[in-house]
Amino acid sequence: MKEARAIIETALKEGRNFLLEPEAKELCSLYGISVTRFGVASNLDEAKKLAKEIGYPIVLKIVSPDILHKTDVGGVVINIKDEQELEVAYNKILANVRKHKPNARIAGILVQEFAPPATEVIIGVAKDPQFGHAIMFGLGGVFVEILKDVTFRILPIEETDAREMIREIKGYPLLKGYRGTEPTDEDALVQMMLSVSRLIEENPDIEQLDLNPVLAYSKGAKVVDARVIIGSSSK
Ligand code: ADP
Ligand code: MG
């Protein structure tokens, strides 16, 4: 896909081997992956304007080619409810970044829709030198970090593979719904994984992709943070 290639080529031309969050989310959108609505502001007034268009509550994040983990530098403020809070958060993020990473280049402030809390899952892709790309699925947070409750398949995958992956993790009952909690929309997760498979198939120079977290709702699923690392152009 031409638009997808353009995003990747722009990053490479700028000497980056990774996409900024807005670029990664744009790429995801092109493949039908649902992401939080967003825009990038270069000053406070633009941020206010974007917030109004997107609708409160919103989230602000630092966009910088020198910052990969935004939370580590105080670069993320979530659940901002009005213009007054936005102004405080905007200045706070810039002050935090100045303090923690004084030399970081700032490409803008990302304004995005606040996604209400839900079950968090992770969809990831990594490239193995021997087997090629593999896709990973798991529940977010402690489930992946401590319990390593994740599952893998070599790409490309088909619908049955995606469904199997979701159902074989130990934490599946949490997705299926328990004690009256609503089941999550399994089909939405299946579709998202198939879209990721297509995205990688068409852009095999992507070395790593992390949709982390993806919020899994009873209707739909939404990517809240996306990271893409580009490797050499060999297949
Ligand atoms: P980092 O670069 O540190 O991984 P993230 O973009 O993942 O930054 O933001 C940190 C955390 O903030 C996320 O793991 C998620 O829990 C929360 N978060 C980020 N964006 C949103 C959003 N749009 N809606 C709701 N929660 C969000
Ligand atoms: Mg993240």
Structure overview:
This protein is an alpha+beta fold and 235 residues long. The protein has helices spanning 2-13, 21-30, 44-54, 83-100, 142-145, 159-168, 172-176, 186-202; strands spanning 18-19, 38-41, 58-63, 76-80, 108-113, 119-128, 132-139, 150-154, 206-216, 221-223, 226-230. The chain contains eight helices and eleven strands. It folds into two domains: 37-114, Dna Ligase, domain 1 (2-Layer Sandwich), CATH 3.30.1490; 119-230, ATP-grasp fold, B domain (D-amino Acid Aminotransferase, Chain A, domain 1, 2-Layer Sandwich), CATH 3.30.470.20. Strands 1, 6, 7, 8, 9, 10 and 11 form a seven-stranded antiparallel β-sheet that branches. Strands 2-5-3-4 form a four-stranded antiparallel β-sheet, with helices on one face. The chain is globular. A hairpin with a 3-residue loop joins strand 6 (119-128) and strand 7 (132-139). The site of magnesium ion has 2 residues, from loops.
